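Hi Q.,

Before the meeting this afternoon, I wanted you to have the adenosine monophosphate prediction in hand. No need to reply - just skim if you have a minute. The sequence and ligand are here:
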Amino acid sequence: MSFVFAQVQAKDGLRYNSASWLDERRMTYMAIQAPEGTKDLLPDEAAFWAQFKRTAAEVFGRYGYAPIETPVFEQTELFVRGIGEATDVVSKEMFTAISGENLKKLLDGGTVKAKSRLSLRPEGTAGVVRAVVQHDLVPQGAAPVKLMYAGPMFRAERPQKGRQRQFNQVGIECLGAEEPTVDAEAIIMLMQFYEAVGIPHASMRLLVNSMGCDRCRPAYREKVLAYLHEHAEALCDTCLTRAETNPLRAFDCKNPDCAQVMEGAPKITDCLCDECRAHYQAVKELLEAAGVTYVEDPTLVRGLDYYTRTVFEVQVVDGLGSQNAIGGGGRYDKLAEEVGGRPTPGLGFALGYERCVLALQAAGVEFPQATRCEVFVACVDDSVRAEAFSLVQACRDAGLIGEMDHQHRSLKSQFKLADKLGAVVVAVLGPDELAAGQVKVRNMRTHQES
Ligand code: AMP
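Predicted structure with the ligand bound:
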């Protein structure tokens, strides 16, 4: 069964002409390129991604986080309910996955069941929370569950530097506790992770805010809505349409006129209830006590609807243009209920691997080259190839990275290849060495032979 991916409107608005796609495919004989907005991770970078994930497992593991793997596609409904229908991510950026069988049904004018409407995950939190609820990972009264994930996310955004349609995230979710220590601990851990992968501390800025809760946010939302109505003539059409579903989205608008209007908008931090204010204050005090520098940004609302109370974002100060957020997250105390679970407070963050790579490059940090060869066995002539083959194998069995030439190159070319692979030593094997039961070893760094 094959899957077809279509970028669709939320819910069921399929806008996909499969017949013309098939015709195009038959007529296209050009070399096929990776799809727009995707990027191959070639060996050096793939090795760095593997190391990045190992560092995450190490740092987050010290805080008790354990790995979880969830599917890359989920029921579309999960994202609609969890992330929010009016968000950009859900309303226009989701890739919907349709099995060949269901595509045929739709093209024949039929419908597919709600549970067969699937979307590629645009972020990791909704899937992890769904898994926590489904497997009852936080039974009533239990200690919080701490989970981490790493993998690809999919958003049909207009590609640009630092913005891809498939990108990799590493993230954590902690469910089952609402105390501010959980928030502070996660933020401290996030900043430690960036340092562990080599992003210089001075090149980053940590923004924090509180989004309030069910008790204080509705009144704040009304204040912002009234403010948007007052300034309607200066706002873009998107802000005006979204004002009715989620007026706070206007804080995220990139239109400079809207941004100017929003500078004067009421600030959530002036409208928090006593509990939210105390929670926010406690998070800030814990960060200060841990020596973590932050900037309070009362306009930080983040792009997803599920956040309550603490939100935070880490930006790179220079070199990444408008796509400067390398990670962010917050508390989502109502999300488990939204997806059908019992009330379970939660907090999480996600960080973008590709943007971290850009941040490292902007800071001039050199990438470690993956070691591809420690011992290269060179053959003086073809008569010793079988023994050379066994010798390379013996090196590998002894735990070394061993390589040889497979294409009958001259000895000189074999040395060039060994050099290109970064070999530490070349073991030269010829009929004379074989007869004497020895090999000549050249150290490629010092050029000494023994
Ligand atoms: P978000 O889920 O939007 O909070 O994203 C968390 C992090 O993922 C961001 O801070 C970015 O580092 C990264 N990210 C989000 N969207 C993209 C994208 N389209 N391309 C590359 N990285 C992204």
